[in-house]
Structure formats: C-alpha cells, structure tokens
Amino acid sequence: MSALAACGALLQRDVRAVLRSRSQLYSTILLPLMLLAILGTGVSQGLDPTLVRDGDYATFLVPGMIAMAVLFSSTFSSASYYRDRDSGLMRVMLASPHSPRVILLGKALAGVSIGGLQALAVLAVAAAIPAIDLEWQHGVIPGIALAAIGIALLALLLNGFAQVVASRIRTMQGFHLVMNLVLFPLLFFSGAFFPLEDLPAWLKVLATANPLSYGVDLLRVAIYDDGSGYFGLPLDFAVLTALAFALFAWGLQRHPGYHW
Question: What are the angstrom distances between the C-alpha of 231 and each of 58, 170, 238?
Fold first, then answer.
C-alpha cells in the first residue's frame, strides 16, 4: 500500500467512526445552531443591538457559529488519538511498514476533513433559514468558496493546536480541560459574539493577537459583511495561512515516534 493510500485509509476510518457516533456528529452541529437560534433571536429582539447591521444579531452570529463548529469538531476528532493510543491500536499502526509521518498525517487530515464538513453543514443550514439574511457581498458562489477556504484554514490551525496539546497531555480528560480553558476564551474575544470596532483598546489588542479573530473576520467578509472586514482579507489570509500550516506541522512533529 502506498503512503497516499495509507493516509486515505486512515482518513476514511476516522470519518466513518464519527458518522457512526451520532451523539458526537449531532452535538457538534446542533450546539452552534441552537446558540444561533436562542442567543441570536434573544439579543435581536430583546436588546435591540444597533451596532450590527439592521440590528439583526442572529445573522451577525453566523460566522462565529461556523468557527465554533470547527473548534468543537477539531477537539473531538483529536481525541481519537487517545482512544487509539489507550487501546493499543496506535502502537500497531506505528509498527506498520509506513513511517509514523504517514500514520499521523492520515489521522490529522481526518480531523481537518471532519471539522470542515461539519462547519459547512452549519453554514448550509444557516443559509437556508429564512430569518437569516446573509449579505454574500462577493456573490453566492465566490462567497461559499471564500468561506470554504477560511473553514479549511481554521480547521488546519485548530487541529494542529489540538495535536500539540495531545502530545503533552497524557489523559483525555486533561486534554478536554486544557482545550476548553484555552479555546473558549479565544473564541469569545475573536469577534464571534460582538463587533471588534467599538471595543476598549485592551480588548482590541487581545483580539489582534488572537488567531481565531482572523478566521472569524474572513468568514464575516465572505458571507455577512458589506465591507472589507475589521482586518481585511489580505491580512486574514496571510495570518491564517502562516499559522495554520506552522501549527499543523508542529503538532505532527510533537507526537512520540514522529520524525521528519
């Protein structure tokens, strides 16, 4: 079996495992949609948010909920490393004729694929809701393509970070605690839940240093914003691309038995 076929086999294995795990599949997609419905409607009609377009907070939330779907999916998918390690299957796979690079790359690509597909599912459902008024300022097809690229880069970045954490934390419980401790604060001041333009200076500094901010900004430009976004597409792409590939490569290198 070639290295490419081995990566493909591992990718298919992990994707099938997620499809069979209905609770994981549904919760990753349904939680962002529930927040979109409850929080978006509650703020739009209960608080009258005049800082977002037409006071429509539900539509404003869509890019942030897509980023949340990628975050949840990357966390859950990376936990498969612990299941395979604790069951002894990882040791068997690393003892195969293929190098550890091929084995871990296949598993990492599975996490990226799962996160990307689930985030696209959230986008598709949100776009189909009549009350959601997406702008699609570049057109629907270019907007979907732009959003798909942003989702893929976010999935690479978050999966790489999850792999770095998984290589240092010895238990699955500790892994989930650390991921929640780090990623949820990053999500909250990424611009997912409120516009960055009118924040205090110290929060703007934190948002600028937050890599998730650039992913949310790119998604907002693609599907919601009627302008150039907070950072602008060139900076969004530059930061996301550099960090995504750097973290993804670093995350693979951190695992025991892996060598370039």
Answer: 22, 37, 11
Rounded to whole angstroms, how far apart are CA atoms 81 and 140?
Answer: 37
Residue 199 belongs to domain spanning: 3-253
- Greatest alpha-carbon span in the chain: 61
Residue 91 CA, chain-centre distance (Å), reads 28
Q: Which two tokens stand for residue 128?
A: 């189909």
Give per-residue pLDDT as tens, 189-237.
888 888 888 788 888 898 899 999 999 999 999 998 767 788 989 999 9
Identify whether 123 is part of a domain. Answer: yes
Residue 129 inside a domain? The answer is yes
Q: Is residue 115 part of a domain?
A: yes
CA distance 66 to 112: 14
Q: Per the structure, how many domains does the chain have? A: 1
* Cβ pair 240, 157 in contact under 8 A: yes
